[in-house]
Amino acid sequence: MTHRNTSTIPLVSVLASALAIALTFAAVPTYGDDPSQVPDWIRGSGDRLEMRLRGKINDKDGQSVHDAAVRINITYNDQVFETLTPNVKDGGFEVWLPVNKHHWYSIVIDASCRDGSRAHEMIVRNQLRERVINGVTLQAERPSRTVKFTLQHAGKPVAKANVRVRLDSGVELSAVAGDDGVAELSLLSHETLSAVTAWSQKKLIGGYQFSRKPVRDPAAASHTVDLFQCRPCPITVKDTDGQPVPGVKLRLNVATAPPEFNFIGAPDGVHLITDEQGVAVYPYFPQIDAPYTYLDLRDEGWRRVESKFEDDRFALTVKKSVDRAIVEGRVSGDTVFPGGFDVRLGTFQAEEEGRLDYVYAITDPDGSFSVNVLPDATYCVYVNDEQWVTPTIDLIPYPSDLKKQNALTLNLIKGIPVRVRLTAGRDASPMQDVRVLFRSRHSFTWQENGQKRSGSLARDSDGNTDDQGIVRMMVPPGELEVNAVSLDWRANQKTVVKPDADNEIHLHRELDKAVAVRGMIIPWNDAVELNDASVRIAAIDGQSGDEFSLKTDSGGRFDFETKATKLAAVAFSADKQFAGSVVIKDLEQPVQIQLYPTKSFRGQILDGQGQPVASHPVRASIRVSDGTAMGGGFPTTFFLPSIEQVTDQQGRYRFDALPCKTEILVRTDPLDHGPNEFRSIDTIYLLPDDEREEVVTRLGTTESQAQQKTLAERFQITQRDCELGNYRQMVIVADTDDPTVKAFVDDALLDYSRQQKVTSFIQLHVTPDDLDDPRNRKFSEQMKWPTVSQGVVFVCAYDVNGKELTRSMFDAEDDQSVSAADELIEQHAPDQQDAKLKWDKAFKSASETDRRVWIRTGQRYCGPCFRLSRWIDDHREVLEKDFVLVKIDDVRDRHGSEVAALLALGRRVGVPFHAIFDADGKRITDSYGPIGNIGFMSGVEGKRHFREMLQAACRNITPEEIETLIQSLDD
After folding, report:
1. Contacts of 699 (CB under 8 A, 6+ apart)
2. Residues 911, 912, 918, CA angle at the centre, nearest 5°?
């Protein structure tokens, strides 16, 4: 067997399962799934494996259609690998599909009849086996509606332009516009537009996806497509030695600027293949502002190293693909025939950074399969089928050092039925024909470049709700995430699927019809501010994607219609001198947006040596949210487009016209401008009477050896943190430059996903260089910490009082060392504390001493949590005049997560979060301020809110002491 179906898929957009359309199979015979014999619907093996698909074509009355033509395309995205045209006889057809010959994702069946009626169906990989067994019935119907497309350039019609639409079923339809620039397409009643591309021979192109912003209504009777002037775009492909690479197949993807990313599409007949100089020219590159572009490399022999788009041309550097290893596996089941199942393997360790590598195979009649995998990569392996499931496994199929494969064995079990019901509106009407995605995640770890990494991949399946708003799916037992997705609504829910349980999920949309909302802006002091003000509005309920950009009338009034239940709005006066924001929760009440004078924010950026950083980008992002947790797929936070400034020669920058009483994030790039990296400068919340000082930010600050703390100082700091947080200190003496030693330390002593009680220790890492430092010798000798030989790790644990509990030496290469380290950790971890008992004890003490309870959450890997604990300890004498102080670890404490949830009140808060209650349990205040949880009290906003907390809760602490406490906080 030499099957070689492989795929490299962008990590940010893993291909989802295609839309499943309900079919009627009553008129199609069943061909059997008896495990004791090979059925007649499968033949061959490996790359020559074929499965027979039978189908019927009926008219709307259920009668067979005899004069139909059938075309079947085997596809992956827009690539068509093979087209089959089986004969139609007595209203039926039969075709043998080559299921392992191509790297395919979907099989699109298109039936057309002489009377103009047609039908189509798309079958994705996990659906194929059931379709083969049961057959398909296509119901042909005549088009019932006509959709017009007006194709224009610069406001003028484009005669004879071509238009192509893609339906959500995967079928594509085309037409040519007349002299008036209008093209017409006839659609069936259930057909939904997904994307459109239009182009002309005059080198014009335009297009969009209906689900991308600005969202278009696919049910509308007419649409307009704006075409843009094009220019040729050269693409040069070279290898890592700088040599041109001929014969490489490419696809250039162009979209509008972020954040919309609305892909335009490419004309028919444009095929990009590099010539002898390694150059291909794309003739339809649109001249639009800041286009988003990327290249697809469609050649299994090469992999991308770097892609640059500069000076209106692409430069692509490639390298030879890694030699893959052929591995074999087997699928088995006691009650089902093992052939024809879709086996999937996925890994994060793809040949290109930031991508996934997927390989697929359909099992032979005996359940065997073979795939080509990357050596030493950890794959997640499972069967994806509509009825049958397997436990998901993860392993390295081919470890190169062993020169042999690991066993790929999957055992089939019947899936567990799950029922999802969707309703909308006050009368809970069923939501019909809504796509529902079922996702069973599998979390796993792997080693990459000496580092332990973790992630999760999912077994996905999907279907559409029926007339009752219900969809059913067979899934594996365990955790399941269900996502409902329509054009303007999304919702999700997680559950645990159990074999004998009533596994049902109900998702409800509150509004099934748009409601009218009216609003007005309130001037700061002059009605002139009202006229022609701009108002940006966006849904933040997590379920809707509504956005509006409005202008007010002379009285400052505006109105809109929405199905969202919660929105954010930001308003600016026409001259940008005034602005305001609001979260809209009650749609029945008029919206009021209070304007305030806009303010400025100034700063300076210095490098690690204190020198100004010139020509460096700084961005300000205006954000409006009420802190609600993440939603079902749409945002719960509204971001306005970021404002960018560049520092001057003195490293200074300035933002003007910033709104007051609105959260603003100020960020910059690191000095090396690393991709997808940023440095936070501040999160600000300006007030009308604010006069902000210039904020100085240092990038690339380094600590000299003289400033580095000694081992004695580090030990004492760590010991204090242990005492304040109920941890044990673990001193690790090891040469982590040795890959074997580092792997052992990471796995045995630091990996909390493997050994949860690791979180009860704070590790102090000591290197051989630390022991050789003259400043540390006396202390290390006093502590009797030994030098370590190659491959050896020394561990010593201490209790909260600094008393030594145990010490051990571990051989990093010994397979028994990990279990020995586990034993040490289990034996010497501190006892688990009970958050509920701490809660009850604190309120009892508060009642007896007439004080309040100040309770905070914290975690092991949270730097601000430790800072807060140290600060409280430094000022304990003053704080205990008014407060009983309590710390809850929401990860380690028994009932910790429950108590933390009581504190958070459903808001996104993170840690540390703190709240103050009276002795009767009534909340007085908490750390959730205008910009969210302040955590440790730093910065202008954090200190301001903390002052308000103390003023609200203190009775014995004096105003002077409050001010002293505030002044003691650093940034």
Report:
1. 605, 606, 607, 608, 613, 668, 670, 671, 679
2. 125
Taking alpha carbons only, the member of 692, 641, 683 closest to residue 665 is 683
CATH topology (fold) of 145-226? Immunoglobulin-like (2.60.40)
CA 826 to chain centre: 35
How far apart CA 653 and CA 681 sit, in angstroms, is 12
> Which sequence spans correspond to the domains of the chain?
145-226, 229-320, 415-509, 515-597, 599-698, 705-828, 835-967
CA-CA-CA-CA torsion for 609, 610, 612, 617, nearest 10 degrees? 80
C-alpha 115/C-alpha 131 separation (Å) is 27
Give the Cβ contact number of residue 715 at 10 Å: 21
Give me the architecture of the 705-828 domain, per CATH: 3-Layer(aba) Sandwich (3.40)
Residue 706's pLDDT band, with cuts at 50, 70 and 90, is: very low
The DSSP-derived string for 851-892 is -EEEEEEE-TT-HHHHHHHHHHHHTHHHHTTTEEEEEEETTT
Contact 218, 194 (CB under 8 A): yes
CATH number for 599-698 (one of 3.40.640.10, 6.10.250.3280, 2.60.40.1120, 2.60.120.260): it is 2.60.40.1120
Question: Could you give the CA distance from residue 155 to residue 171 in angstroms, rounded to a whole number?
Answer: 30
HSE value, Cβ hemisphere, 13 Å, CA-based, for 591? 31
Query: Superfamily for 415-509?
Result: Carboxypeptidase-like, regulatory domain (2.60.40.1120)
- Which residues in 517-538 are b (16+ Cβ under 10 Å) and which e? bebbbebbeeeebbeebbbbbb
pTM: 0.84
Across 202-301, the runs of DSSP E, i.e. the strands, are: 204-209, 222-226, 228-239, 249-255, 272-273, 279-286, 292-297
Percent of the chain predicted with pLDDT > 70: 95
What tens digit of pLDDT does each residue of 572-625 get? 999 999 999 999 999 999 999 999 999 999 999 999 899 999 999 999 999 999
Q: Count other C-beta atoms under 10 Å from residue 720's C-beta.
A: 17
Q: How far is CA 156 from CA 165, 182, 216, 225, 683, in A?
A: 21, 11, 21, 11, 47
Q: Is 444 helix (H, G, I), strand (E, B) or coil?
A: strand
Sign of CA dihedral 447, 450, 455, 458: negative
Report how far residue 437's alpha carbon sits from residue 633's, in angstroms, rounded to the nearest whole number.
12
Task: Provide the pLDDT for residue 633.
Answer: 79
- Residue 673's pLDDT is 75
pLDDT tens track for 32-80: 567 778 999 999 999 999 999 999 999 988 999 988 999 999 999 888 9
Q: What is the pLDDT of residues 805-843, one digit of tens each?
A: 999 999 999 999 999 999 999 999 999 999 999 999 999
DSSP 637-664: SEEPPPEEEE--TTSEEEEEEEPSSSEE
Distance separating alpha carbons of residues 380 and 439, to the nearest angstrom: 14
Using the structure block, give the residue that is written with the tokens 């906080």. 969
Q: Give Cα 815 distance to the centre of its chain.
A: 37
Superfamily of domain 835-967 in the CATH hierarchy:
Glutaredoxin (3.40.30.10)
What is the token pair recorded at 780? 């290390």
pLDDT in tens, 70-97: 999 999 988 899 999 999 999 999 999 9
Length of the chain: 971
Out of 2.60.40.1140, 2.60.120.10, 1.10.357.20, 1.25.40.890, select the CATH number for domain 229-320.
Answer: 2.60.40.1140
As a three-state string, the secondary structure of 705-734 is HHHCCCHHHHHHHHHHHHHHHCCEEEEEEC
Spatial CA neighbour of 580 closest among 599, 566, 560: 599
Going by C-alpha positions, the residue among 572, 594, 597, 574 that lies closest to residue 687 is 597
